[in-house]
Write a structure and sequence with these properties.
Chain B: This is Nucleic-acid-binding protein containing a zn-ribbon. The complex is a heterodimer of chains A (about 400) and B (about 120). Chain A is an alpha/beta fold and about 400 residues long. Chain A has 13 helices and 11 strands. Chain A starts with a strand and ends with a strand. Chain B has one domain. The chains are: A alpha/beta (about 400), B mainly beta (about 120).
Chain lengths: ~400, ~120
């Protein structure tokens, strides 16, 4: 099997840039990744691209070829849609194609344009990731769905809004030095607690912002990297995907996300590592409670312990296991179809040592990324390892 | 829009005809379905839906999409009715007046913003 190496990474700034087209956003990220990789244009054999709501936000379907063209490439291209896990799924497909020996050089990533729509339309657009008949028609919004999970978690394991506020505080602090982040300002527990309710028990500071942005990674086979003398010290050593019933009401429990556990176990097994080997994690904190569910599903914390991990300093930048050193979705921003790729970008830089927050880690070897779709009916986990 | 299977199911809620689908292993689900979402069985039988359910979780929604914009804040809950769970809008109660474990009845009512038939819970 061919190992997969990350030859180059690129991001746009994340934030409100409503005047920019999707094709311009993805072009910026893709060109940055191509420059970082130093791979010839002719070498690219395909694009795996993630996008969720482009048909609603830009009335643009068939985005694969559009984005390959925007990236300056002449190769087959496929758009992957798995709600907020779209780019994670896109990266996974690229990884599988290289491992299978079918390709040596692929571009993967994603884009989402959101702030050109008014907030109510964004709320409506995000809700299409839920079950239209049985959830959306009963008033379930995207924040509402995670609120239902948060209350169920509190009922089963305990925990409080204040515990969740500490996750927001941590991720905002991590985003301050990150030039790509949407919110580069610290917040306090009091500010988070006092913010207005969105869907109780979740308040505004429990939620990620609405974001425009794009991500791209150049993935190459180990053989190609060696033949061409590429500086590509980070490998995607493990990849896993999990699935669950779409509607919350059909799940066994609301306080756990077994699709992410399934993805994590597959990815760890694939890489030959376990949760104890993980030095750093980038997880899908679309809401503060989602970070709790993520770190527990990844096996990094026992069920019921994740909620207090940030408050106890265990997942802060100085903690035993830093989580979301990028700022996470919460503060870096969440252009939904780009997020899974952005996590790979941030993790690759953290492990390579050229991330602004790399100094929080001492000789890290293993990083894990966790990308979730909807209320985690889709989950993709990748294990990244760096040559030491 | 007509959604055959779902429309008949939602209209029957609150009447003697209310039902869910049951597979041979006793798993519950809601139509339209040809397979059990828990085990994949294809023999699904219409079974009477219990009249009362138990609230498992709920949220008071303050930021809504256009289809509920005129109703904020409103409460969406998931309640269990034996072998099956339903998601619905809670009426005749505020978020302060509901708790996990409460008993609710279920019926169909109109969504005033859209005119669509909506699953509605009321305290019992």
């Amino acid at each position: 099997m061919n190992d997969v190496r990350i030859a180059g990474v690129g991001l746009t700034p994340f934030g409100r840039q409503p005047e920019r087209t999707g094709r311009d956003l993805f072009a910026e990220a893709a060109l940055a990744a191509r420059e970082d990789a130093g791979v010839a244009r002719e070498a690219f054999e395909g694009l795996h691209y993630g996008n969720f709501m482009g048909a609603l936000a830009e009335r643009q379907g068939h985005q694969g070829p559009l984005m390959a063209e925007a990236a300056g490439l002449d190769c087959p291209a496929t758009r992957h849609e798995s709600a907020c896990a779209s780019a994670g799924v896109a990266v996974r497909h690229a990884v599988q194609a290289i491992r299978a020996g079918e390709h040596d050089v692929l571009l993967a990533g994603g884009m989402e344009r959101m702030t050109n729509l008014p907030t109510t339309e964004v709320t409506e657009s995000l809700a299409i990731a839920a079950d239209e008949l049985f959830e959306v028609r009963a008033g379930m919004t995207f924040p509402g769905a995670y609120a239902l999970m948060a209350r169920a978690y509190f009922e089963e394991y305990g925990g409080s809004r204040e515990d969740l506020a500490h996750i927001a505080v941590k991720n905002h602090a991590n985003a301050v030095p990150n030039e790509f982040a949407q919110y580069r300002r610290e917040v306090t527990v009091e500010e988070a607690m006092d913010s207005p309710p969105v869907a109780t028990p979740l308040h505004l500071f429990d939620a990620c912002p609405i974001t425009d942005g794009a991500s791209a990674v150049v993935l190459v086979s180990d053989d190609y990297a060696e033949e061409h003398g590429l500086d590509a010290p980070v490998r995607i050593a493990g990849s896993g995907q999990g699935g669950d019933n779409l509607a919350l009401q059909d799940r066994e429990a609301f306080s756990r996300t077994p699709a992410a556990t399934e993805a994590a176990e597959a990815a760890y097994d694939d890489a030959g590592v376990g949760p104890d080997d993980v030095d750093v994690a980038e997880v899908h904190d679309c809401f503060t409670i989602a970070e709790v569910l993520a770190v527990e599903s990844l096996g990094l914390f026992e069920h019921g312990e994740g909620v207090s991990a940030a408050r106890e300093g265990r997942t802060t930048r100085d903690g035993e296991l830093p989580v979301n050193l990028s700022g996470g979705l919460k503060a870096k921003g969440h252009p939904v179809g780009a997020t899974g790729g952005a996590q790979i970008v941030e993790m690759a830089k953290l492990l390579r040592g050229d991330h602004v927050n790399s100094d929080a880690l001492s000789d890290p070897r293993v990083g894990v990324t966790h990308n979730a779709g909807g209320t985690v009916a889709s989950a993709v986990v990748h294990v990244l390892e760096v040559d030491r | 829009m007509t959604d055959h299977g779902y429309d008949e199911w939602v209209e029957a809620l609150g009447t003697d005809e209310a039902f869910y689908l049951e597979c041979p292993d006793g798993h519950g689900s809601l139509p339209p379905r040809r397979t059990c979402p828990h085990c994949g069985a294809t023999e699904l039988t219409e079974t009477p839906l219990p009249a009362e359910g138990t609230v498992e979780t709920y949220t008071e929604v303050h930021v809504a999409g256009p289809d509920f914009a005129g109703q904020t804040p409103y409460v969406t809950a998931i309640a269990s009715f034996g072998a099956v769970r339903l998601t619905g809008v809670l009426r005749d109660a505020t978020a302060e007046g509901v708790d996990v474990g409460d008993t609710v009845g279920v019926e169909t009512a109109e969504n005033p913003d859209t005119g669509d038939a909506t699953v509605v819970f009321r305290p019992r």
